[in-house]
Amino acid sequence: MRKYTLILLVAVLVVGCNSSKDKKAFKDDILNYVNPFIGTAGHGHTFPGATSPFGMVQLSPDTGLEGWDWCSGYHYSDNSIIGFSHTHLSGTGRSDLMDVMLMPFVGDVKLQAGTKENPDWGYRSRFSHDEEWASPGYYKVNLKDYDIMAELTVSPRCGIHRYTFPENINSHIILDLSHHFSTDSVIYTSLEVINNNTITGQRKTKGWGEPGEKYWSNQQLFFAMQVSKPFQSANVVTDDMIIEDKRAEGKNIKAILNFETKQNEKVLIKVGISAVSIENALKNLSNEIPDWNFDEVLAKTQAEWRSKLSTIAVSAPEETKNIFYTAFYHSLLAPCLYNDVNGEYLGSDKKVHTTQDFSNYTVMSLWDTFRAQNPLLTLITPDKTNDIINSMLAQYDEYGLLPVWSLWSSETNCMIGYHSIPVIVDAYFKGIRGYNVEKAYEAMKASAMQDEFGVKELKQYGYIPYDKYNKSVSTSLEYCYDDWCIAQIAKDLKRNDDYKYFMKRAATYKTYFDKEYKLMNGFSSKGKFRRPFDPFYSSYGECDWVEGNSWQYSFFVPHDVEGLIALHGDKNTFAEALDKLFSVPTDMSGHDVPIDITGLIGQYAHGNEPSHHVAYLYNYAGQPHKTQEKVHEIMTTLYTTQPDGLCGNEDCGQMSAWYVYSAMGFYPVNPAGGVYVFGKPMLDKADLKIGANTFTIEAHNLSKENIYIQSIKLNGEKYNKLYITHQDIVKGGKLEFEMGAQPSTNEFILTIPNRWDEQ
């Protein structure tokens, strides 16, 4: 294990672990099983810095800005740090934010960051991973070029830095507001030196939101920054020229704070942020970090993490616990809080709104998270789900549609589908209803009946023709699932005409099933399949698929697996099709194959979301032992404790939530169906706390060889189903798996219900 396991020795809570009791408490601390460096190498795109559960601030080091693998600002392959900024995205396929970057240094004043090839040219510093630590809510690194120890922690809306300087008459901290993944995206910045320990300012960036009258794309952030040690002077910099004024505005604005420091002198900086105003940033700061007690802030944030992570108490080998709790940690980073302590936030209409009865959230990567991360939140924190849905409805009021991929006050319209809908429907049928249900239904219909993003063509033709709309098949298949979800709530609300209409649309997937290939294929407005047909083809350009190909999308019918099996002929031919998916060559065709398609086993792509339910489909075909084999292979080869221990983008918790569910032994194949399909557990025992109840999962005789479920008990009674319902879990009880080295000869009931009224 990395040195991050030693973090509590230097962090907070106790001065030292002198007694055997203290040492045991240190070893057993659940935070020590979380390694924020997992996912920071390869294509994981995670950040190692400090954040609170679902916090607005993600205070983390930035090491590079030059390419796709630096979407989070940090990549483990680097050996120098540019600085520490306050907002980051976890595991996304596109980059943004990185607001309000600070960097301490000593010696000559430097106005540029420098480069990886020549760090000495700027204020960038070399560092070693051997002198870098990270744990939930805390990050620490030694900046080798300056002999400065940097420590970071956060409250929900604020960050606090602690820099331990050497003795030097020329110590500095630079505030660089021009720092961004793309400097062309910086629209406007400003700062004002209020006095010798306070600076305030603003930053606007255009991010990746779509331009145009409707698709608001600008992100707006205000900040208030205070320094524990009054600076002797402050140099305000405009376009890399030091000016005499104490205030500046433009696209390239910086400030350099100058100090004289003693050996091991600690200089603290605390920063509050707001999307509304400087006044609100100051309110956030005074409310959440009123003093200069770094350890107290850290202790509070660590306590929040312990509380959240302790919702699932597991017994497993050390390595498995590291992977599990890191996955659980990553599952709790997004969505992100998006209102100030007074309830104000900047809405999608660019107006200031006030929320009093819910917390507003943003950073909803719904194409990813509706599959497992959002359903996981309904289990462990249903109140958060109510807040998320109320936030969705607030965007509906402000923007006219439910979120697709919300980012601060912008709707990026990134990816496909209207996947707010399964999140709402899942919550509704699980009894999570702390929102206006009628309004939610109205909002779902508005998104499903719009005239953009292929919906117009869907309404006109009854499917989306490939010659009328690019990315037609992926888009339509995702809409089929969302429309099935609307139909279920329409039925419950007695909207029978709506139920029939949306169920008809939900069956559109059958249009694309090409019987010659037994795969999904593009279908034209003239009623013809695409010819020639290459199921390995994928492209960012003209293509029937989004971040995938026909192999990966041909099994995306989570709402009607039995109907998909019928298209193949029978369960055996369907299982053969799954076998083929996992065994065909991993090669892709296309001149610009999407880089997101990673983690390949055959053409199964675990590094991207459309494949995430597929290994569980063998259960529906009557071959559960193959689900157990594939899930075991995925968990043991595509998740590790190393920095490259994720096989693809973490995607705001989805990649990790898949592991959390799968390690417990089940997964929501239909995310809004209330049914969890059995796979293969990785944990000897897991106690899942749900309100006042506890649901315990035990896997007896689990080992590297014993990967097959032999028999199952629920609450001490023989259980021969291949699934368990949400209601069975939330009322508490005990699920037991008996494991063995060969597929079970016991007979299981093969029918798996797909919706609430079938259970």
Largest sheet: 9 strands, antiparallel
Strand order of the largest sheet: 7-8-9-10-19-14-13-12-17
Number of helices: 19
CA gyration radius, whole angstroms: 26 Å
The total of beta strands comes to 39
Coarse shape: globular
- Overall mean pLDDT: 94
Distance between the first and last residues' Cα:
44 Å
Please report which band the strand proportion falls in: under 5%, 5-15%, 15-25%, 25-35%, 35-45% or over 45%: 15-25%
Q: What percentage of residues falls in helices of 4 or more residues?
A: 25-40%
Low-confidence stretches: 1-24, 211-216
The secondary-structure class comes to: alpha+beta
Describe this structure in words.
This protein has 759 residues and is an alpha+beta fold. Helix content is 26%, strand content 24%. It contains 19 helices and 39 strands. The strands form 11 sheets. A 9-stranded antiparallel beta sheet has the order 7-8-9-10-19-14-13-12-17. Helix 7 (373-380) packs across helix 8 (382-399). The radius of gyration is 26 Å and the shape is globular. 56% of the residues are buried. Residues 1-24 and 211-216 have low confidence and may be disordered.
In short:
By secondary structure, the chain is of the alpha+beta class.
Give the helices and strands, then pairings.
Elements: H1 7-10, H2 20-28, E1 50-51, E2 58-62, E3 80-81, E4 83-85, E5 101-106, E6 125-126, E7 132-135, E8 138-143, E9 148-154, E10 158-165, E11 168-176, E12 186-195, E13 198-205, E14 219-227, E15 233-238, E16 241-243, E17 247-250, E18 253-261, E19 265-274, H3 278-288, H4 294-309, E20 312-315, H5 318-330, E21 336-337, E22 344-346, E23 352-354, E24 361-362, E25 364-365, H6 366-369, H7 373-380, H8 382-399, E26 405-407, E27 410-411, H9 420-429, H10 437-448, H11 455-461, H12 472-492, H13 496-506, E28 513-514, E29 519-520, H14 550-553, H15 561-568, H16 571-583, E30 600-601, E31 604-605, H17 624-637, H18 654-664, E32 666-667, E33 675-678, E34 685-690, E35 693-700, E36 708-714, E37 717-718, E38 723-725, H19 726-730, E39 733-740
Parallel strand pairs: 35-39
Antiparallel strand pairs: 1-2, 2-4, 3-6, 5-11, 7-8, 8-9, 9-10, 10-19, 11-18, 12-13, 12-17, 13-14, 14-19, 15-16, 15-18, 20-34, 21-24, 22-23, 25-26, 26-27, 28-29, 30-31, 32-33, 33-38, 34-35, 36-37, 36-39
Helix pairs in contact: 5-18, 7-8, 8-9, 9-12, 10-12, 12-13, 15-16
